[in-house]
User: What shape does this take?
Amino acid sequence: MVLIDKGPLPNPGGSTGHASNFIFPVDHNKEMALLGVQSANQYRDVERSVDSGGIEVARTPERMDEFQRRMTSAKAWGVEAELLTPAQVKELVPFINENVILGGFSCPSVSVVDSLDTGTLFRNEAIEKTGLKVFANTEVLDVETEDEPGTGLQKVTAVVTDKGRIEAEYVVVACGVWSNRIANMAGATIPLVPAVHQMADVGPMDILAETQSEISYPIVRDMDTFCYERQSSGSMEVGSYAHRPILHHPDDIPSNEEAALSPTEMPFTPDDFDQQMEEAIELMDMLGDAEIKYAINGLLSLTPDAMPCLGETTEVRNLWSAAAVWVKEGPGMAQVVAEWMTYGYPRVIDAHGADIARFYDHERNDEHIWSRAEEHFNKTYGIVHPAEQWENRRNLQVSPLFERQEVLDAFFFQARTWERPQWYGSNADLAERYNVAEREVEWDNRWWSPITVGEHLNMRDNVGLIDLSAFQEFEISGPGAVEFADYLCVNKIGPVGRATYTPWLTPDGGFHSDLTMHRTAEDVVVVVTGVFDGGRDLSWMKKYMPKDGSVTLTDRTLEVSTLGLWGPNAPATLTKLTDADLSHEGSSYGSLVEVKLNLGGEEVNATLFRISYVGDTGWEIYVAWDKAPMLWDALMEAGADLGIRATGGGVYGTSGRIEKGYRLQGAELESEYNPLEAGLARPKVKSATSSARTPISLLAKPVTRKC
Amino acid sequence: MRVLVCVKRVPAPGAKINITDDGQSVDATNLGHTMSPHEECGLELAVQLVEVHGGESHVLTLGVAAADEQCRWAASIGINKATLVDVGTQGWDPQRTASAMTDAIRAIEAAEGGFDVMIFGNESADTGGFQVGIRVAQALGRPMVNAIKGVNISAGIDGADTVLEAQRETDSGMEVYKLAMPCAIGVKEGITWPRYPTMRGRLASKKLAVDVGASEAAPGGQTMVRLNRPEEQVSETIILGEGAAAAPAVIELLKELGLWSQGSTKQEVGA
Assistant: This one.
């Protein structure tokens, strides 16, 4: 095992060298929260951590509301927290101006860590225990790859440095802000951009110096000004996420030799910080007369969706990414990657949100990365609704029905790159018909409309038409197709004309995926999965596909469009377009029936998949991409007197499935649950083991016997 | 007391300095800007003189419009007024610079009164010409000494007898010069311990009205052809070993260098 660093050790000049080094353990995101706690504990284990405590303070009523939600998250993740009055905050932080705050959210387990020294300790342990060889001051010039037989992928083979070439079976890119540049050398991408976080060290101040310690007062996060104040011995570090987004290309970061301080301590641009200074002085008057001893535009990594980039790169086999990692989650994320490489999937947490395979091609270019980073940088301390939509980089991928949906005043949610109607403004009358009112609390109305309930109830009474074109369809074909498909999934692949709803499990038996697999021909199985999971599922298939050429993988997503038709009037609607037998016998649950549909006089081939994710009778109807508009028009016409309405994702992905109790991968289903725990175990399991290498007892429903 | 400090905006580079493709300037794309440490100490001296003797301090710079940043830096540590001669480039040749600054100083003095002391950095951080201060002082008929590391003002101010006592370090001791005021000095780093701006100082500096002017001074005799970066002096480090095991290699090396003889043992040298 070899560690290569371009810079000198122990501080090679990356973001860690100038980080403020504190960990607030509460985050609404489960992955990030648990990795934060895990990381904090690892720092504690090596005694490079001080529990300083931390208080987020509110200047607005909206922030106080947000604190209530943070209390909920704290409780959910098991983190001790409490709400404080301004006077209580003042007791803990005597130099705060309690008159400008409305209250505080306090976490006693907020900690300050020594990240550089922890890295040194871990490195030394690896040297002692595994014989790790460390090469500092060594620049990587190239990452070599070769073709991997049978998969069309590249495989990493060697790293070329300015001091020589090292052959390698596995390479982990943990290069912080430079990670994408290194990955690019191998033809892979790690979608992140170096971004500025401004920080100033001001002091000395007597009240801090008198403590004679690195930190004795709780860290204060001034949430409404997006700033923090953190004691550092006799001084205070004032950091900001409020300034304009300032992004740099990795190639524009100076080298250690060229940099006045370090490569990631870029020249301070004071104009961007003045507003924050005024607000900091307002909160802590003593800061005004403290000298600004050190101020930087410190670089850190931002990704398009504000989550890290962990896991094997999708383009190059055995090239792994441990990037876009901040000090607060560093050790936990290292653990994630180490477990992933060792056990086949992380154990400490399901890293589906951090999995680098989640990104589609549209999300991996600089235009997208920069645009999204610019948009979310100022949300770092923001009040962000879980359903909040992006403003920029929209309409990257639209359905063939997009124009029709715009006419119906669709409100679009973006699922990764795909635009999907969440509800249709044209259905406002349904909200009136079912007497659905706005919700009581303003927050609950954000990114929501009573119309979605109207659409839900109409589907229950009549019939709803749902655009599912964003489904990701991957065709497995070839003589080894069925065997490979069976290897991937828990339930058995059926005969031609049957589809299988099935989990894919991690080696430990937890959920990796939850999807359907369609046996469309003797040697063809089509995997149909959701747009949030398509990248991860495709990557998983590539990882496990046979190398003997017996299987071909083809992405059919943009060739096939899917419309969902559900509700008590679904059969009556569809029967107007076909003579096929749509009864329970002719189109049984789980069956795939090839039919001809009469779409405005034209006979069009379609596949009817009898299934429901919303609980009502109906079908997923698969047609060629360019035939989807004709199908839409024909169904809307056929269902006109049966109460048909275009129905949005708010019903399909949320209310419809939840009312029926159907789980969603990435929400209720995660790798920490096996099928038994998720209530999805079957009475019988197939005899062949799946890729999960999972004990069968976890997959089968236990049988209760009378004694 | 009225004190003037002249500063020059220069890039703040690392160990390796990149030059633009046309060879005309330092590539400052990813660099911040600063002034020489001499000038920082000069600003501090001016602030301290005014703190002790009262009066007003003034910073003057010649360069690009962005040198506004250096004017505000000066203001953030307590300088009262600022004048920027915008010549659209980082610097002119020393004669032209001195000529333009002389004009600017005359204009300021005509409007606001003469300066008792003019402070220059000993030399600029980039071109290091060592002459602008002398040229300006000579043009204005003021006495000047360079390389000053200490200052005393021995008598009360505003009188003809006021004397500035300037100290210059030499290898053999301290030279002391007595300059009749008004006068000029070129100061060296170490003459003061410059303060950092406070947050309030920084915010206050934003309100400073920087007087921006131009200059039509004629070019001097010195022109820059292009900048070249000298070949890097690469020194190779050979690790001879660690701990006691390294001793033979060390001895071998000392022998190679002719610094070792068989008789060189601890006993014989009496250690």
